[in-house]
Amino acid sequence: MIAPPPRVRRAVRLRRAVRLRRAVRLRRAVLVRLAGWSALEAGQTFLLGYALARALDAGFLAGDARTGLWWLAAAAGGVGAGAYGTRRVYGVVADLVEPVRDSLVAGVVAGGIREADRGALSGLTQQVEIARDTLAGLVLVSRSFVFTVVGALTGLCALAPPLLLVVLPPLLAGLGLFAATLRPLARRQEAFLVADEALAAELGEVCPGLRDITAAGAEAQVAARVGEGVDAEFRAARALARWSVVRVAALAIGGRLPLVLLLAAAPWLLARGVTTGALVGALAYVSQSLLPALQNLVHGLGTGGARLSVVLRRLRPPPPPAPPPEPAAEVTAGAPALSLAAVTFAYGPASTPVLDELDLVVPPGGHLAVVGPSGIGKSTLTAVAAGLLHPADGAVRVCGHPVPGARAAAARVLIPQEAYVHTGTLAENLGLLRPGPVPLPELMAAAEAVGLTPLLERLGGPDALVRPAALSAGERQLIALTRAYLSPAPLALLDEATCHLDAEAEARAEQAFARRPGGTLVVVAHRIDSARRARRILVLDGSRTAHGTHEDLLRTCALYRDLAAPGSAAASQPPLAL
To answer: What span, in angstroms and rounded, lies between the C-alpha atoms of 110 and 108?
Structure first.
């Protein structure tokens, strides 16, 4: 790993802390808003029974109709406030659920692109929406149940604490029984879905081939195989139904038994000071609040929760085992970083060779610049070295491995003139050539070395979203250069990869690659200064070549003297599309 300078390490720690605090603060703010509007919504639950009890005890039963009507009006006002709270709750739930949906969509799209997953479209159009809708439903149901129960129990306690002794025990027993059914019910619902999918797949194979099955006399065998699938689905459905009965029993115990107990215990309650209005209010709490809330929870969480768990497992399957380290990136001891032996390449059988019996050796850690007139074959040379073009004769080896080949491919990285940047975060763009995420300190150190730090800070850090159309050609080249710098390949081939940078930025990037630990650099020179910085220079001139240091070539090579002369342009045309 490349050790980042202290300034970069401090910046990394600061950005990481700011990002974590921002995420926690946003999630906490959403939850606080959800709790606030849910409390307003639950206010009508409290007023429902309490206002009814007071309307009876202090109003109608006491002969004061006006007081009774005022309490009923208060209950109606609570219903209006609760409706407003419900309206605001839906917006907050969207703020909580939509980021989860975005994460699922990103995972499905990534799987479809990287793994060519044919089921990605179904996952994107159906399963993600199922997960989003089910999750929103579960949040709504669970939140409503919690606040409704709190409001109802608070109201019972305010009316008469003995009422809790009758209502609370069966409610807790029903909830405990329901909680015990959640895991078995989810397993059996998933088993039913798997059996149903297997039967559908079997029928999808059998139905189009019915004539062939009849002609071959295979009806009995096919019927037996399909019958096994039908039986498996039937068994799964019966197991699911049995546990559904337990769920209904939990609803009866927790929601309906308190009504029976309140009626049965009415004489006992009245004898202990519970008023008639309080008893009627308790019946209203159970029948109008607790029973519907428990029913929604049982059906919503029992069915929707199992459905959500199944869909999430389908959308996010267990990651495949990490592939073994790529052996192609290994370097054969003592082998040159790049060697060409009598390489000949032409773009057609009757064409003049662009490379004619070229011999070239670049030692490990070397820094070679390739210069020559436009169209002479500099980009062709890098394409042959990268394995994108195959020579008619000769041998090409990278770090001792033959080209083309997997080991040679992983031992080199080619940065062309047209830099590729995709829509996504900056960190995702920079880590494209790495088998896993790049550690943040290493990423920041590479950006500092290549000269990407000013752009990185302007965009907002490694997690900033990159839009290629909003970047200049030079900025895209800086991103591509940093990506190559972070790659594990020891040989870097720069095919005019700095042509859109100014002279200072180009020098900084090339020097970073030249100093990269264990790295070798071959650069197609856009400016003659690139050749001056190289340890060795290769001059291409048709069938003739010359190589040496800058001073040697000034003495011995007329073409190089012309290219290095003041006012001479060493730039090339864009490379041939491969």
So the answer is: 5
Beta bridge partners of 438: none
Nearest to 134 by CA among 313, 316, 312, 314: 312
Distance of CA 128 to the CA centre of its chain: 13
The dihedrals phi and psi of 369, each to the nearest 5 degrees, come to -110, 135
The 8 Å CB, 24+ separation contacts for 95-101 are 95/30, 95/33, 96/30, 96/31, 96/34, 96/139, 97/132, 97/135, 97/136, 97/139, 98/132, 100/131, 100/132, 100/135, 101/128, 101/131, 101/132
Helices (H), 119-218: 120-122, 128-159, 162-206, 210-215
Q: Name the token pair of 350.
A: 């009757």
SS3 string, 430-484, reads HCCCCCCCCCHHHHHHHHHHHCCHHHHHHHCCCCCEECHHHCCHHHHHHHHHHHH
> What single letter denotes the amino acid at residue 248?
V
Q: Hey, is 542 helix, strand or coil?
A: coil
- pLDDT digit string, tens, across residues 174-217: 888 888 887 887 788 778 777 877 888 788 777 877 776 776 67
> Which residue type sits at 38?
S
Read off the pTM.
0.46
Length of the chain: 578
Phi, psi of 493 (to 5 degrees): -110, 110
- Identify the three-state secondary structure at position 540: strand
Q: What is the pLDDT of residues 124-158, one digit of tens each?
A: 445 556 666 666 666 777 777 888 888 888 888 88
Q: Number of helices (H) and strands (E), helices first, in the chain?
A: 22, 12
Secondary structure of 263-303 in HEC code, one letter for each residue: HHCHHHHHHCCCCHHHHHHHHHHHHHHHHHHHHHHHHHHHH
